[in-house]
Specification:
- The protein is α+β, with helices and mostly antiparallel strands.
- About 20% of the residues lie in helices and about 10% in strands.
- It has one helix and five strands.
- The chain has a three-stranded antiparallel β-sheet with strand order 2-1-5, with no helix packed on it. The chain has a two-stranded antiparallel sheet with strand order 3-4.
- The longest helix has 27 residues.
- The radius of gyration is 33 Å and the shape is flat.
Length: about 130
């Protein structure tokens, strides 16, 4: 059997432990919510003013290549949207007449001077497709 003298230090220790554990929670409840630091990354919209041609063009990879006669498009862009389903067949064979050859996209741009000396990454994201219902 535990005497009242022996159980008293246990009660005091438990009370002290509860007080110590409660103090940090009380301090956190009064402080502002956590806000992550600002990201040093910048996003630049590259969707506008792409040059496009629906054929293979020798030398088009050269920066000085003259693409002035090419169409100006925005991305996302579908290279065969104008010729799709021009000729529909009735035997479940799909679309005939769509262009299946090579196409070129080119983009001319200059980075602002404030990005000089920084690492630059181009990231192309896939377009999200709407969910289909079954």
């Amino acid at each position: 059997m535990i005497s009242s003298h022996e159980s008293r230090p246990i009660r005091l220790s438990a009370a002290a432990l509860i007080l110590v554990l409660a103090l940090p929670h009380a301090a956190l409840a009064q402080s502002a919510p956590y806000a992550p630091p600002a990201s040093p990354r910048a996003k630049i919209n590259f969707d506008l003013n792409w040059k496009f041609i629906r054929q293979d063009v020798a030398g088009a990879e050269a920066p000085a290549f003259d693409d002035a006669a090419w169409a100006t498009v925005s991305t996302p862009h579908t290279f065969n949207d104008v010729d799709s389903f021009r000729q529909i067949i009735s035997h479940s064979g799909g679309d005939r007449g769509t262009y299946k050859g090579l196409s070129w996209y080119r983009k001319h741009f200059k980075l602002p001077a404030k990005y000089s000396g920084h690492e630059i990454f181009l990231e192309f994201e896939a377009c999200a497709r709407p969910a289909t219902s079954s």
